Amino acid sequence: MKRTHLPLNALRVYDAAARHLSFTRAADELAVTPAAVGQQIRALEDHLGVVLFRRTSKGLELTEEGCAGLDALREGFLRFEESVQAMQAGQASDRYTIAAPREFYAQWLAPKLAAFSAENAGIQYQLVADENADFTEANLDIAIRLVDGPGDLEGVQLAPGERVTVHAPGAAETWIGYPTANLPEGAQASVQVGNPGQALSSALAGLGKTVLPLPLAAEALASGKLIAVGEPEPSQRAYWLIAPLPQWRQKKVKALVAQLTA
């Protein structure tokens, strides 16, 4: 069914004028001139084909037609306000839904979220393991992906794009590969895994050498669990925090991004 066009501005003016029974006081409430109020009321009367107000010796009065729809109109405005509050609930909420690679969450993101929670009591997180999850279907606030850029979304790079070859002390002189590992030319992987996180676990277990994003290997390198072979090298792929533009306008997302990029 086709919806009737509603002159919402004029209806808001009518509601104010009906409450005050004065165009002047209605104008003060709405921060417009009394003439503008009168113009909106006349336009509304022309639109509806009825007279809403009459002037008497006692002042402004509502006509019978003007009284007829007033209660429903005010209830409608309350519903509008409830609707706007519901749409803003996600922005005002302290709940974050984040998609991130498991290994990056464990090695890099979790400590950052802990620090953010320490400064903002009541924060709640829901983590989605599939970093490529659809934003709408998963109701995501942000996603973190190991990519060469944000693509069609808005994004900020969380760490420099660097990779490093690593192995555990005493590890076998073999290679651990995964689809985006980009091993050195001529290297043959004797262990093939599905992602950088599995490659990290394999390297820590001593199964061989592999090439990892530097942020993923940083903690193990610092603790001596892994040893770097040579210096880190530039990489086109880096960990990016990405989201559609509307998410970036949310106050809660801005606050979290500031924490993660500090």
From TrEMBL:
Pfam families: HTH_1 (PF00126), LysR_substrate (PF03466). It comes from the Bacteria. GO terms for molecular function: DNA binding; DNA-binding transcription factor activity. This is LysR family transcriptional regulator. Belongs to the LysR transcriptional regulatory family. It comes from Altererythrobacter lutimaris. Keywords: DNA-binding, Transcription, Transcription regulation. Residues 6-63 form the HTH lysR-type domain.
